[in-house]
Amino acid sequence: MRKSFAEVTARTQVQRLRALAARALPVWGIGDARLRLLHHGYNSTFRVDTADGGRFALRVNTQPHKTDAQLAAEVAWLAALAADTGLRVPTPQRTLDGRWSARIPSADHDRELPVVLFSWLDGRNLGERPTQRQLRAVGEAMAVLHRHAEAWRLPAGAELPLFDDVLTDLPNRLGDHPALDAEAREVLSAAYRRAQRLQDEAFADTPVIPLHADLHGGNLKWHAGRLSVFDFDDAGLGVPALDLAIAVYYLRDDAAAEQALTQGYAAVRPLPPVRPEVFEAMVAGRNLLLVNDLIEQPNADLRSLVPGYVRTSVARLRAWLETGRFRREVPGATS
């Protein structure tokens, strides 16, 4: 009997998704091509090398909460950014019949999975140790994204989720989930209540705009001295400070790195006006979102991370509740 997608190894999951990706390529008029895995996580992305030398990135959306209207908003914003700004972003490619995406049946998921083909971006990911020059460029790019978002309007039939909840558009699993013991549920739930109360203050005072909502070194490339921004899959509506807090989460405990990021942003547009306590809540909220999402993931590699990540998150968020300052490096936080 064929095992379900959630029961098989990551290697088997990738094999099945590669076969699905190969079935999608003819929709774009691509026949003979080599598919190489780039990333298998919340979604799966393959590099496509065509017989005539073309190169693309193909993403298979395996997450069930992404709607057609949200996908339409993502690709429309990317197309507008490519046309209206000097940012380097992956440009969505139209299918032979003019659509921005394809839907390919998946027996593993009992539904059709959305597949999108993007132009290729040269360079290497910034990773976990970007330079201050690179981080300044990230801040500048974020500010350009926000400036464009303020004037851009969603096309008909497209929508983005509202991220006024700390957990964005995901269900709250922090109070009752098998991956959480009583201590974890208590700490995570208390942190959620505090983070939500403070984040509500920012949303009450500031209009929402489209946000990338996932600007970290894994979604940024550097090539020939220039930055590229990709993976807008998590885009949603929120206040600008939330985008900045998400990026800061991955830099926290490196004051020089945070300063380079914020200086880059301030060189393009004023920094979002939020109280320090509110900003810290948004940084902590990123940890809450990640643990809330991770404990329900079907991806085999991600499932293996759950016990350690829960322990780390509880240690960090307990320290934030006690001190008011979110840090990644605290006693009991091992990753």
Summarize the structure.
Helices cover 42% and strands 15% of the residues. With 335 residues, it is an alpha+beta fold.
Describe the structure.
The chain has 335 residues and is an alpha+beta fold. It folds into two domains: 5-120, Phosphorylase Kinase, domain 1 (2-Layer Sandwich), CATH 3.30.200.20; 132-323, Aminoglycoside 3'-phosphotransferase, Chain: A, domain 2, CATH 3.90.1200.10. Helix content is 42%, strand content 15%. It has eight helices and ten strands. The strands form three sheets. A five-stranded antiparallel beta sheet has the order 1-2-3-5-4, with helices on one face. A hairpin with a 4-residue loop joins β2 (44-50) and β3. The longest helix has 24 residues, at 182-205. It is globular. The model has no long low-confidence stretch (mean pLDDT 94).
List keywords for this structure.
335 residues; alpha+beta; Phosphorylase Kinase, domain 1; Aminoglycoside 3'-phosphotransferase, Chain: A, domain 2; five-stranded antiparallel beta sheet
Report the C-alpha radius of gyration, rounded.
Answer: 20 Å
| Side-by-side strand order of the widest sheet | 1-2-3-5-4
Task: Just name the CATH architecture of the largest domain.
Answer: Alpha-Beta Complex
Question: Quick one: CATH superfamily of the largest domain?
Answer: Aminoglycoside phosphotransferase (APH), C-terminal lobe
The outline comes out as globular
CATH class of the largest domain: Alpha Beta
